[in-house]
Amino acid sequence: MKNFTIFSRHLNSTVFSLGIILLSINMAYAENIGVSAKAGTLGLGLEADYKINEDFNIRFQANAYNYEDDFEEDGIDYDGEIDLSAAGIILDWRPFQSTFRISAGLYNNGNKLVGKATDIGNEIYDIGDEEYRSVIGDPLVIDANIELGKGTAGYLGVGWGNAEPSGWMFSFELGVLFTGKPDVSIDARGSAVVLVNGIEQQFSVSDSSNPLVQELNENIRIEESNLEDDISDFEMYPVITFGIGYRF
User: Fold this and answer.
1) Where are the domains of the chain?
2) Under CATH, which architecture does the 2-243 domain have?
3) Tens digits of per-residue pLDDT, 121-171?
4) DSSP string for 180-240
């Protein structure tokens, strides 16, 4: 139910955005307007396109999806939630005036991954260069927020789609979204136990004056850097999309 609610909110925003786009196009050229539903690695979305001539058309696209998935990074198991959100403007060139097209564009990229690692206590976490044991009654919680690239991302792709003046349209697209380096932010809360000269020391993460907390924060910065390196492949996000629509 939570995922459906979040997706509905994204979809309502998408529908509103595309409605504004369609209304902004001169209705004298309404026969050149197409509307499509999309599904792919960017999530579910809607697209409005305007056929400029036999060689070029321009598309306005918005995508969104939210789902939960567990993942493990650098020895820590997270309960994750992936939030896909991207809107873009794309120019298509049909070099042979056929269904084949070469595309380039810009996206407003809001894709992110949120993870939480927690248990009832006694879990061992490898954070940076140290091991920390969670405390029963006040367990150590690790929150990770991962922005999958920068806010503005370039796009290049190729695809196939109907180019007829009107009627049903079917499309398939392969491309790359150049999102840039992911940005990772990790926070900790609760209490933990760490070995200091062979002796167990318990501390609360909220006690910022404690040298053990300061050391934990340094290890968290190391963990952030390690996690960014582990997911560096997201600098180029693969795009595979199927679509069905109608041109008026």
Assistant:
1) 2-243
2) Beta Barrel (2.40)
3) 678 888 988 999 999 889 999 999 988 888 899 999 999 987 666 788 899
4) -S-EEEEEEESEEEEEETTEEEEEETT-TTSHHHHHHHHHHHHHHHHHHHHTGGGGEEEEE
